[in-house]
Design goal:
2 domains, alpha/beta, Aspartate Aminotransferase, domain 2, Aspartate Aminotransferase, domain 1, four-stranded mixed beta sheet, 14 helices, binds 4'-deoxy-4'-aminopyridoxal-5'-phosphate
Length: 394
């Protein structure tokens, strides 16, 4: 017996993806040419699997603000927010986030993963309930594990199922925190938000919306699905990440409830870890201002989204979402065809994401594409042509 025996099924799944050629998981990106192009295996490729939705990672102003902060404040804060790692800029970013939502409070975390761990594990305590969508991201499930609340899973995107589960709690539903995502990262599908809100209100429950993949993408100011749907007033907590549209690393939770501030005294993933580095905070502040003002970026992103979705539908692919969005997930019948698609696209100079069980919902084999405002119409044409060739060869 060995401590490592329990990983044998994971090793077998990895081996099933083949040992030859460019690795389809944890693919090394050798160089970055722009927000939309890089080098893999010595070849120039279009990056169509990076979550860099607005292409801000190499925006000159964003990079410049990180450089200035790096040179002035140094490489790290060397401390947690509650001890010795709270700089003025952390507070300023929190104010800028809460001001964007028009809410009294926001907290910044070192990653989006920690934003979910902290918010979920701390808000829902021993006598409370967590109602999680079955397709929730690992950070949401891990937040439930870290905390002491009773966790109830409801069927993915099914407000009726949530309603029945909340009904069983009776008056205790007022101590239930429902968690849904603004855009599910594997299939690219969106929740029926208005219906979830109707259920939440009827049961007097609370709603946390994870806008990791929808922030920057939806809404006039890019605040996410709730802004686009005009329902921000009905949300209790929005969690987001800096690692996608904002092009950095870190996360936030913001709320119309000023008592969110109490989490600073209790949330272990906030208290017991180093705060984000000054350069990351500075780049995120500049990126945030560009997201809020970024109607032109969103117009470019949505033009790209709509063109690619239309083409994939014309080719007859089965997609993870019937509503176009920044993630296009192509559902393939098995692991082999998903892998063949991934390799076929890469050999045509297109980098995408291969997603297979256990990382995917419902055991699906997926080819996942993420679109960016940094993609030019020519990039999108090349992606469409590469799919056309794969279709012909099939
Ligand atoms: N929530 C969701 C829905 C995510 O997809 C992710 C990351 N992919 C996170 C939270 C965690 O964010 P980060 O990677 O910035 O830690």
């Amino acid at each position: 017996m060995s401590l490592f025996d329990k990983f044998s099924h994971l090793a077998a799944a990895r081996a099933g993806l083949g040992a030859e050629g460019t690795p389809p998981v944890a693919t090394p990106i050798e160089d970055i040419i722009s927000a939309a192009e890089g080098v893999i295996d010595g070849k120039r490729v279009i990056l169509a699997g990076t979550n860099n939705y607005l292409g801000l990672t190499l925006d000159p102003d964003v990079v410049d603000s990180a450089k200035k902060a790096l040179e002035h404040f140094g490489t790290g804060t060397t401390g947690s927010r509650m001890a010795n790692g709270s700089y003025n800029a952390h507070g300023a970013l929190e104010q800028e986030i809460s001001a964007a939502f028009g809410w009294p409070s926001a907290m910044v975390f070192s990653t989006g993963y920690q934003a979910n761990l902290a918010s979920i594990a701390t808000l829902a305590g021993k006598d409370d309930y967590l109602l999680l969508d079955s397709d929730s991201h690992a950070s949401i499930y891990d937040g439930a594990k870290l905390g002491n609340a009773q966790t109830v899973i409801f069927r993915h995107n099914d407000p009726g199922n949530l309603d029945r589960r909340l009904s069983r709690l009776g008056a205790d539903a007022s101590r239930a925190l429902i968690v849904v995502e603004g855009l599910y990262s594997m299939l690219g599908d969106q929740p029926p938000l208005a219906e979830f809100i109707e259920v939440k209100k009827r049961h007097n429950a609370w709603l946390l919306l994870d806008e990791a993949h929808s922030f920057g993408v939806f809404g006039d100011k890019g605040l996410g699905l709730a802004e686009q749907a005009g329902v921000l007033d009905d949300i209790d907590f929005v969690v987001g990440t800096f690692s996608k549209s904002l092009g950095g690393i870190g996360g936030f939770c913001t709320s119309p409830h000023a008592q969110l501030e109490l989490l600073r005294l209790a949330a272990r993933p906030y208290i017991f870890t180093a705060s984000p580095s000054p350069a990351v905070i500075a780049s995120t502040r500049t990126a945030l201002s560009k997201v809020i003002a970024g109607t032109d970026l969103r117009t470019r992103l949505w033009d790209n989204i709509n063109r690619l979705y239309r083409a994939l539908e014309t080719y007859g692919y089965r997609l993870g979402s019937d509503k176009p969005g920044p993630v296009a997930a192509i559902i393939l019948p098995d692991r082999e065809s998903a892998l063949a698609h991934w390799r076929g696209l890469l050999s045509n100079g297109i980098y995408t994401n291969l997603m297979v069980p256990p990382a995917t919902p419902k055991g699906l084999n997926l080819l996942r594409i993420s679109l960016s405002a940094a993609h030019t119409p020519e990039h999108i044409d090349r992606i469409i042509q590469a799919f056309g060739q794969l279709r012909k060869a099939a």
